[in-house]
Amino acid sequence: MMSEKSYTVGRLAADTGIKAVTIRYYEKIGLLPKASRSESGYRLYSEADYSRLLFIRRSRGLGFSLDDIRELLSLADRQQDSCAGVDAKVEQQLEQVRSRLKDLRAMEQELERLSACCDGGAIMDCRIVETLSGEAAHNRRAKCS
Amino acid sequence: MMSEKSYTVGRLAADTGIKAVTIRYYEKIGLLPKASRSESGYRLYSEADYSRLLFIRRSRGLGFSLDDIRELLSLADRQQDSCAGVDAKVEQQLEQVRSRLKDLRAMEQELERLSACCDGGAIMDCRIVETLSGEAAHNRRAKCS
DNA sequence: ACTAAGGGTTATAGTAACTATAAGGTCAAT
DNA sequence: ATTGACCTTATAGTTACTATAACCCTTAGT
Predict the structure, then answer these.
(1) Exposure check for chain A: N or C terminus, fewer CB within 10 A?
(2) pLDDT at A144
């Protein structure tokens, strides 16, 4: 007797913080099911779609790829199965994040070192340029920390 | 009287650790100058090309984009100019890296928290799935640290 | 001289996760 | 009726490569 409330794509976008274009894109790649349509052809979304989108958004926030999320969603859909698969994916993602952290920390250190190297002279005397050019650490005591 | 030694693309690749395809790609997008050619059409590279490639590789290692590197190279080429531009770019990159670090650290924390949540039951009881589904922190004392 | 392996050459398409653009249809309000 | 804000589609661009195909060159071995 009462129809469920439905969202247009723009409404869903506003409510979830995911842009309308992106929502359509998710539909196109099959991450979201095809939305039902109004008479005039507008997409109409249900509460279930809304939840699914939130799931996607949270997962993206944790750095999962869309392919990972596709898997997560299908794992999460099998309510009575073990959650070992989900747990494994979280673990895997954690490792990946840590590995990227390691790389970035190394970059940060090196950039800090370089940054401390510059004393504002000309390019030809610039330690930064020297370092980037590959004349690795030889005598950088003089001007660098 | 003596011609400089020159590298083929594969040799340069082996020496710099940048793949031959990538070297050709760098030439195509103008990051490397057009290489001279042997009679049969093979690319021939000089020491200068070698240095330039090393510069690119080190900069990539610091997370600079190819566009940034293009700028860095052109800055570095003006030997008598001030190195302020280079310094600024390093500073900028440092900021970017730090911002990405911040994001990743947040992801790491949240993933750690999630990972600790799983007690190996069924999906329908899984705290991870619950959390991802957006039912934010309500009563997670029970099973989560 | 012939051949096969291991170089090199080009052009084109695919990757991830969108973003931008164009060209148009719909809806609510004035 | 017209404006403005929404919706629709399709296509191309982004980053930094990687993969593929189809072909040419060089060199070592028989």
Answers:
(1) N
(2) 54
